[in-house]
């Protein structure tokens, strides 16, 4: 890591005082990330940082953990901690993952983790308008870009709308195949977004640590008034952000005070 100074200067020392040492170290590392290190650069190990700044490894771990939560650093299992790439903007319109990655100049790939015909939970029965006891297609896929795992998708599909779906090549864009084989192009969807911590299984799939932040999107999509897909997607919080345009409501003609 050649860009990182091997000897801390006067402004980069951790000292006893009213400011906690982990907070001091966090700001030192923040300055290094923002001024010296390009995206994808490794930072020294916890042991090296503890020795360099004469603090405990617990202090180092706390400082790094906060910067990971802020998205400035990212942990890669078995490799170390790196400066994070700039977060990608998650699109809040109906576009396939494959199309979105291609638009960004990245190479999308998909791993099918599970596919089958199963009895869905009641929430999905209601969302897809299924009959009581009617099975649906269940599909779990890992989505990658340039070989980096970005999202886990767990979805249900109405078998009456897309018969034989599981016989298709599910490693390719599902939206493209729905359009080609079924004439389905989603015309409407309802989406809910929330944040949560990665559980152990999802963290393993995404190459992150359990407890790391995720953005979760639950979407029910339909075609010509008929629901087809009930999908939940877990996106890495260190790789994505969401920006929305906020305008005054129609009743607030004078704007927001």
Automatic annotation (TrEMBL):
Domain HTH gntR-type: 19-86
Keywords recorded for this protein, A-Z: DNA-binding, Transcription, Transcription regulation
Sample GO molecular function, one term: DNA binding
GO biological processes: negative regulation of DNA-templated transcription
InterPro entries listed in its UniProt record: Bact_HTH_transcr_reg, Chorismate_lyase_/UTRA_dom_sf, Tscrpt_reg_HTH_GntR, UTRA, WH-like_DNA-bd_sf, WH_DNA-bd_sf
Superkingdom per UniProt: Bacteria
UniProt cross-references to Pfam families, sorted A to Z: GntR, UTRA
PANTHER family for the chain: MANNOSYL-D-GLYCERATE TRANSPORT/METABOLISM SYSTEM REPRESSOR MNGR-RELATED, MANNOSYL-D-GLYCERATE TRANSPORT_METABOLISM SYSTEM REPRESSOR MNGR-RELATED
Listed name of the protein: GntR family transcriptional regulator
Source organism per UniProt: Amycolatopsis taiwanensis
Lineage: Bacteria, Bacillati, Actinomycetota, Actinomycetes, Pseudonocardiales
């Amino acid at each position: 890591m050649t860009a990182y100074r091997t000897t801390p200067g006067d402004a980069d020392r951790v000292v006893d005082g009213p400011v906690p040492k982990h907070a001091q170290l966090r700001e030192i590392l923040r300055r290094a990330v923002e001024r010296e290190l390009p995206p994808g650069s490794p930072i020294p190990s916890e042991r090296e940082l503890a020795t360099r700044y004469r603090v405990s490894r617990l202090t180092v771990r706390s400082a790094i953990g906060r910067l990971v939560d802020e998205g400035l650093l990212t942990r890669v299992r078995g490799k170390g901690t790196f400066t994070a790439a700039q977060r990608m903007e998650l699109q809040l319109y109906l576009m396939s993952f494959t199309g979105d990655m291609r638009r960004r100049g990245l190479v999308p790939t998909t791993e099918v983790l599970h596919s089958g015909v199963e009895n869905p939970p009641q929430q999905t029965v209601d969302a897809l308008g299924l009959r009581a006891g009617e099975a649906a297609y269940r599909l779990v896929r890992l989505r990658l870009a340039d070989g980096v795992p970005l999202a886990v998708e767990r979805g249900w599909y109405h078998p009456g709308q897309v018969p034989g779906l599981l016989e298709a090549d599910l490693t390719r864009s599902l939206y493209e195949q729905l359009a080609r084989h079924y004439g389905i192009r989603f015309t409407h969807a309802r989406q809910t977004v929330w944040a949560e911590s990665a559980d152990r299984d999802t963290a393993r799939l995404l190459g992150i640590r359990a407890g790391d932040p995720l953005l979760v999107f639950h979407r029910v999509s339909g075609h010509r008034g008929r629901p087809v897909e009930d999908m939940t997607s877990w996106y890495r919080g260190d790789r994505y952000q969401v920006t929305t345009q906020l305008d005054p409501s129609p009743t607030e003609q004078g704007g927001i005070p």
